[in-house]
Amino acid sequence: MLLSILGYDWEYLYNIYLQILSEVLVYVKNFALYICAWVLSYLLVCGAVYRRYARKLPTRIRGALGAKRVLIVIAHPDDECMFFGPTIFRLCEQGTDVHILCLSNGNFEGKGQVRRKELWSACQELGVPVENICLINDTRLQDSPKVQWPVPVIAKLIHHQLESLAVDTLVTFDRGGVSSHPNHSAVFYAVAFMFVEKIMPQNIFCDGQKAEE
Ligand SMILES: [Zn+2]
């Protein structure tokens, strides 16, 4: 009655209500589309930037060392994957010239030939060219936790590789050999021996791989 007196009727108000509601819905729909388009554009830009730049950003090792040619010294086939896989993969991905010096053929269980092939296959997967793999088969360096590897022999082999390849970065085990294997630790002591005997070539950066806590 009052609304009629004021000149309004229910149908008129209902139409206004529907009009406002439809405009609000259109506004919400447009706003949602705008947000979706903005988020999608943002993700596309992030993806493009990542593909273009982020994969080439320096890792801790690359940035810290500026390594161009790296020698990874391992004791047995499989060490390259078990202990240095991410490092080798990342370095190869960045275009670093990675060389592997494997000091034995891993013949502990009489499977030296098999493990040798596995090393070659693993290196191919990691990105190391087969010509960059050097596997030593020396009777003094037999794969066994009970065999003490002569440190000067290892040092001589590493020294030869460092000099002949003009390596700028050496990566190997830490004192504990990561897994406490004596053959691994022997490599660390050989590198330490090279420093003590002052036969480590100049400008070599050494990084001992540490076990995960
Ligand atoms: Zn090993």
UniProtKB/TrEMBL annotation:
<dbReference type="InterPro" id="IPR024078">
    <property type="entry name" value="LmbE-like_dom_sf"/>
</dbReference>
<dbReference type="Pfam" id="PF02585">
    <property type="entry name" value="PIG-L"/>
</dbReference>
<keyword id="KW-1133">Transmembrane helix</keyword>
<keyword id="KW-0472">Membrane</keyword>
<dbReference type="GO" id="GO:0005783">
    <property type="term" value="C:endoplasmic reticulum"/>
</dbReference>
<feature type="transmembrane region" description="Helical">
    <location>
        <begin position="31"/>
        <end position="50"/>
    </location>
</feature>
<comment type="similarity">
    <text>Belongs to the PIGL family.</text>
</comment>
<dbReference type="GO" id="GO:0000225">
    <property type="term" value="F:N-acetylglucosaminylphosphatidylinositol deacetylase activity"/>
</dbReference>
<protein>
    <recommendedName>
        <fullName>N-acetylglucosaminylphosphatidylinositol deacetylase</fullName>
        <ecNumber>3.5.1.89</ecNumber>
    </recommendedName>
</protein>
<dbReference type="InterPro" id="IPR003737">
    <property type="entry name" value="GlcNAc_PI_deacetylase-related"/>
</dbReference>
<keyword id="KW-0812">Transmembrane</keyword>
